[in-house]
Amino acid sequence: MDMMTSGPAESPIVLEVRNLSKAFPGVQALDKVGLDVRAGEIHAVTGENGAGKSTLMRILAGLEKSDGGEILLKGRPCRLRSAQDAMAAGIAMIHQELMPFPNLSVAENIFMGRDPAVRALGWVNRRKQLDDAKRLLELLGVDLPPAALMRNLAVSEMQMVEIARAVASQAEIIIMDEPTSAISTREADALFRLMRDLQRRGVALIYISHKLEEIFRMAGRVTVLRDGRHICTEETARLDRPTLIARMVGREMDSLWAKIPSPRGEVALAVSGLTKAGKFRDISFTARRGEILGLAGLMGAGRTAVLNAIYGLFPAETGEILVFGRRALVRSPRDAIARGIGLVSEDRKTFGIVPGMSVKSNITLPNLRRCCRAGFIRSQLENRLADERIRAFGIKPADRNQVVNFLSGGNQQKVVIAKALFTDPQIILLDEPTRGIDIAAKMEVYAIISRLAGEGRTIILASSELPEILAMSDRILVMREGALAAELDPRQSSQEDILRYAMPN
Predict the structure, then answer these.
(1) Are residues 449 and 292 in contact, defined by beta-carbon separation less than 8 angstroms?
(2) CATH number for the 254-340+425-505 domain, one of 3.90.1150.10, 3.40.50.300, 1.10.357.140, 3.30.70.1130?
């Protein structure tokens, strides 16, 4: 493990935030927050969802305007009124919520606004653009064609392109908002090596993560925010995990994992020979009532593609799906829902929530007929059903009519789960269900998963977080390059065992 510290204390301060404040309707997102970051420092910023981390970073990236306070770059006051201002000031940001140009290539996304040009003619030098993109992706350990269109990539691949774009900017300050939330351990290790290289060059890195092991591994200092306020800034070497968690949540936390053993029942889902060219091949497995079946693998191994096929988003070309022993032709999500299958997608912005709709409307949307009579929505019934699920899943909106896009990431994720379960599925496909959410929210999601299994529902859990897979699964299937490579018993396996089977031959 790389234990290099964040840089000498005498390094100059390149960024200072003083008394920064920002309010949204009904929410004080930031309340006189302070932060300082030194050249060559990896400075972690952490806290629960809704603590104000993303708002602070969006202000530094020129995407939001503060209500008060000031920002100093190398000791001079600076106004960041747009993303262009931030880029000109040497600040780049890797966003947790991906913002690709879907109809452009990987190379065009990486060098957007900084395209290599033929000076005499003012044309973009496409060959140099592709070559430079290829070298940068190789540096990140990513096997991705620079000419591929972004719309055809998986979320994990888009995340690596987002990282490459920030590195290509040659910024002096790079903000990383949950950069490893959608990538595997191997890609994360490549990113960490790159971060150390940037650090040696004097680049200041602001690192936002809910993964405490990454904070202790990479950051020299950590700033904790809670409820929009600055709680502390300390050297990570002076902290331990329980102390940092207590600073984040304001209380001591019990064990993270909430899995309760549940009895196995009949086979609920059986897939045989599922194949989709270029994505996965000959996938066969069974899952029983009350079972949590883990699905592990590296980026691009095919986990998401398999779940999407079972749910009918992108159906398999060959193979068979049996639901409680009966053949199920699943060609669309409507077919899946009718057969008692629900999906929590890894991409909650695209397939999980409708950002401009209310919490209530998001939850009831998949089964709105349940709230209707004679073709009309019964508002009182819809309100009651939404309120029941808001309570059951611990969602914390201002009220049921709050626009879901204004919720924290953890609350959005719980809305996605409540929405998927509003159709009362017996088979639940969970694709990265804790991506980008804090420890307290993760505990709540784990408790929900355990409760659902205890009710006799079948859970298939795909995750890049190996401790999560090991702790929550009854069995683990490991995928490698589109095929099943192993079935493991989590009680007798380690992270190293999973990676050994997940790595390409």
Answers:
(1) yes
(2) 3.40.50.300
